[in-house]
Amino acid sequence: FMIPHWYTPADMLLLMTAHQLLLK
């Protein structure tokens, strides 16, 4: 998926965590 350029490292961490939870 595409990642907005305004995402901060913290947002990325939250996004990846949420993505992993969705994959479970």
What are its keywords?
24 residues; mainly alpha; 1 helix
Overview of this protein structure:
With 24 residues, the protein is mainly α. The chain contains one helix and no strands. It has one helix at 9-23. The radius of gyration is 9 Å and the shape is elongated. It starts with 8 loop residues before the first helix and ends with a helix. The mean pLDDT is 81.
Secondary-structure blueprint of this entry?
Blueprint: H1 9-23
How would you concisely characterize the structure shown here?
With 24 residues, the protein is an all-alpha fold. The protein is 62% helix and 0% strand. It has one helix at 9-23.
The best one-word shape is elongated
Number of helices: 1
| Number of beta-strand segments | 0
Structural class: mainly alpha
The largest sheet is: none
Percent strand equals under 5%
Low-confidence blocks of residues:
none
Helix and strand succession?
A: H
- N-to-C terminal Cα separation, in Å? 18 Å
Mean pLDDT, all residues: 81
Radius of gyration, rounded?
9 Å
Work out the helicity level. Answer: 55-70%
